[in-house]
Amino acid sequence: MRDVSLNPVRPLVTDLTNLTELAWLDDRAIAPALVTLTSGATRVVVAPEVGGALAAYYESTPEGALHWLRPATQAAFDERDPLRMASFPLFPYCNRIRDARFEFGGGTVDLSGNDLRFAHALHGNAWRHPWQVGACTESSVELHFEHTPDPQQPGDWPFRYRAQQRIELVGGALHVALSAQNLGDRPMPFGMGHHPYYPRTAQTRVYANVQRMWHADADVLPTHLGPHPAVEALRHGMSPDAFALDNNFANWSREATIAWPDEHRQLTMTADTPFDHLVVFAPANDAQLCVEPVTNTTDCFNAVDMQEQVGGCVLEPGEEIAATLTWTPRKG
Q1: How many angstroms separate the most distant Cα atoms in the chain?
Q2: Are residues 36 and 99 in the same domain?
Q3: What is the distance between the alpha carbons of residues 66 and 279, in angstroms, rounded to a whole number?
């Protein structure tokens, strides 16, 4: 059952036909139930049923929607695909786990079989399920997801936990507070993050103060931490076309800026600890660009002897963790 507790002036909507605010979609579009947050001219469209994802974050202007994140397409709604939303939450780990298995608590955690599209477990399980809607105002909404292991489902995450997002507009800035609690009676390995996609143009630049990069193999799994020309490029404003990247970066300052200098605007993302790791996904000859704040590197659960370098943590029974991400736009 979905728990819907909404301000009447901000109802969940399913028929987008008359919503001119969502004009980037076809005027005949039908989407899952959405929540639209407003603050002045800024809008955030949330798709609870599509993995608790953000569908869009934009400013409404006389010329149309000015998007700060890549907006979801109609196909993303049709297929309920979080991977094609504007951003989606990552619980209870970020990125890949090699061969979908790792050792923990004296046994093997086998996550294989839950998604045959991927050879390695990917992004946890919260993005694969609908989220419940909690308290909602004109400018904020709370989303909740609770996972109980299903022994009959191959590759199901074998630990019980609760996750929450509080998504809020403050002025033009977007705040996403993420939290989780171990609801089980045994320790649980854990990590979290968000997976934002940004508009990518020929003039886009990414700024981030990072120290080293995790080099990766053909399966995009980390092999070693070391120098790379992208480290220096990010400090001075890296073009997404400069390298073919799908890599973790270490020791970032928890601040990154995506700039569109030809459009005279930029978006700065800041993160609380323990979002101490940064992923940059900028594939060659592709329109995608992600700059992702995460608490753990790829395959961290299989690198138990490198905890300080790979992040992640273990939540004891009943233990909670919380941290906030903020995106602040600027024009001019």
Answers
A1: 60
A2: no
A3: 25
The Cα 14–Cα 27 span in angstroms is 13
Domain of residue 318, residue span: 89-331
Q: Kindly give, in sequence order, each residue whose CB lies less than 8 Å from that of residue 10, ignoring residues fewer than 6 positions away.
A: 35, 36, 37, 38, 136, 137, 138
Query: pLDDT tens digits for 144-197?
Result: 999 999 999 989 999 999 999 999 999 999 999 999 999 999 999 999 999 999
How is residue 66 written in tokens? 């000015």
Candidates 167, 184, 186; CA nearest to 175 is 167
Q: What is the rounded end-to-end Cα distance, in angstroms, of the chain? A: 46
314-to-88, 99, 185, 297 alpha-carbon distances in Å: 23, 21, 13, 15
Domain boundary among 84, 111, 146: 84
Q: Of 84, 116, 135, which residue is a domain's last?
A: 84
Residue 5 is classified by DSSP as B
How is 48-87 classified by DSSP, letter by letter? Answer: TTTTTEEEEEEEEETTEEEESSPPPPHHHHHTT-GGGSSB
- On whether both 157 and 241 belong to a single domain, the answer is yes
Q: How many structural domains is the chain composed of?
A: 2
Q: Is 286 left (phi over 0), alpha (psi -120 to 50) or beta?
A: beta
Do residues 109 and 198 share a domain? Answer: yes
pLDDT reported for residue 121: 86
